[in-house]
Amino acid sequence: MILNLAVFLCTLTAMEGIGYLAHRYIMHGWGWFLHRSHHEPHLGALETNDVYLLALALIAFALVAIGRAGHAPLQWVGAGVAAFGVIYVIVHDGIVHRHWPFKPRPRNRYLKRLYKAHLLHHALKGRDNSVSFGFLYAPPMRRLKRQLRERRRQS
Ligand SMILES: [Zn+2]
Ligand SMILES: [Zn+2]
């Protein structure tokens, strides 16, 4: 049980790193054609960017299925991936972008910090020059703002 929990928590933590890299180098790289919808004025409840969420769900589902078919503890890796997806949807879609009919507010310091950091991610238009690619960890505001000033000068 302890081992399973450790696998789950390690996966959840690792997913933040993987998510950061995927956002920075795939979604703002060759995958921009899908992510672009997320950086434009919002039209409906769904956007092509949600394809990434669908891919994440499929990966989590596959890992759980393989784990349960006898390759333990892969199902706990899958659970960690799924948990990252759920937290991401709640924090990013719900609290930061308010895509839902009810609009939860960032109440504690951690959520406020994520909220501000992600608004900085959307501060510059287009695929290049963005800052703050993480989802569940935000570097200090000072650092993000300095990066943003530098990128503004470059663009
Ligand atoms: Zn982005
Ligand atoms: Zn966003």
TrEMBL record:
<keyword id="KW-0812">Transmembrane</keyword>
<dbReference type="GO" id="GO:0010291">
    <property type="term" value="F:beta-carotene 3-hydroxylase activity"/>
</dbReference>
<dbReference type="GO" id="GO:0016123">
    <property type="term" value="P:xanthophyll biosynthetic process"/>
</dbReference>
<comment type="similarity">
    <text>Belongs to the sterol desaturase family.</text>
</comment>
<dbReference type="InterPro" id="IPR045019">
    <property type="entry name" value="BETA-OHASE-like"/>
</dbReference>
<feature type="transmembrane region" description="Helical">
    <location>
        <begin position="51"/>
        <end position="70"/>
    </location>
</feature>
<feature type="transmembrane region" description="Helical">
    <location>
        <begin position="6"/>
        <end position="26"/>
    </location>
</feature>
<feature type="domain" description="Fatty acid hydroxylase">
    <location>
        <begin position="9"/>
        <end position="128"/>
    </location>
</feature>
<dbReference type="GO" id="GO:0005506">
    <property type="term" value="F:iron ion binding"/>
</dbReference>
<keyword id="KW-0472">Membrane</keyword>
<dbReference type="InterPro" id="IPR006694">
    <property type="entry name" value="Fatty_acid_hydroxylase"/>
</dbReference>
<feature type="transmembrane region" description="Helical">
    <location>
        <begin position="76"/>
        <end position="96"/>
    </location>
</feature>
<keyword id="KW-1133">Transmembrane helix</keyword>
<keyword id="KW-0560">Oxidoreductase</keyword>
<dbReference type="Pfam" id="PF04116">
    <property type="entry name" value="FA_hydroxylase"/>
</dbReference>
<protein>
    <submittedName>
        <fullName>Beta-carotene hydroxylase</fullName>
    </submittedName>
</protein>
<dbReference type="GO" id="GO:0016119">
    <property type="term" value="P:carotene metabolic process"/>
</dbReference>
<keyword id="KW-0125">Carotenoid biosynthesis</keyword>
